[in-house]
Prior knowledge:
By secondary structure, the protein is of the alpha/beta class. About 40% of the residues lie in helices and about 15% in strands. Helix 2 links the parallel strand 2 (about 30-40) and strand 3. The mean pLDDT is about 95.
Amino acid sequence: MPFFTVIIPTFNRLGLLRQTLASVWGQEFSGHEVIVVDDGSTDGTAGYLRSLGGRVRVLQQDNRGPGAARNLGAALATGDYLAFLDSDDVWFPWTLETYRQVIEANGHPAFVAGKPLRFHDEAALRTAGRENLQALAFPDYLASGDEWRWWGASSFVIRRATFAAGGGFAAANMNGEDGDLALKLGCANGFVQITAPFTFGYREHGENVTGDFAKSLAGVWHKVRAEQRGGYPGGGARARERWRILTRHLRPVTLECVKRGNRREAWRLYRATFRWHVALGRWKYLAGFPLKALLS
């Protein structure tokens, strides 16, 4: 049984996918299998993946979005841990070895978050050195919510049993499915954030799915409604910890609605989460948003 299953969802990113896979094949740690889920690509991705033979396990589905694609890969994974990597991002040669060391040093935690190097120009990747390993350990993810701890699904390494127990990614074709999953795993035993070295390169470009604001808005509402119906763990005792994380996700989207002239949607989000912000003492936001909305 492999230690890791690497899961890569892809949709019409053939050129970038080649680079992503090259970075996976360049790993120092070899105890892994690779699953690529083709999410209905039409650019020749399927033919390229067939040409790789047994180097990767290839799964295909109609275009349903990255969350559903990752779930399909996870359902057929055999590794103890699932290491997610988007098809426009890359790993460094030490990435999986770093994850292995962190996992073994911290008693096999449920959830590990890697460190991103955000880049536009691939030359920036060459500036990343193999620094000494540093990490912050928490009892669980909810306990880490005083600041942002991860950057996209390519940050995520999750124990396979924990992923299954949490229900996996939301299958809806939206942005923010990574934040939703993190909250669903909020009380799983053990969360570790790697602070050095960099473990993946996060490519910033015009085709990033996070650039689709309609999907970002849908993802925020998904999380708000999940919290309202009790869909995240921890109950009332840990509500403030969840709200601390949730409001960090939604405030930028609320303000972006105002910027785009969609004040009605912004006010809906403001009202829906007003009580959370009061409980957290977010007075600057509570007072500043109405002024910004009225003056825009």
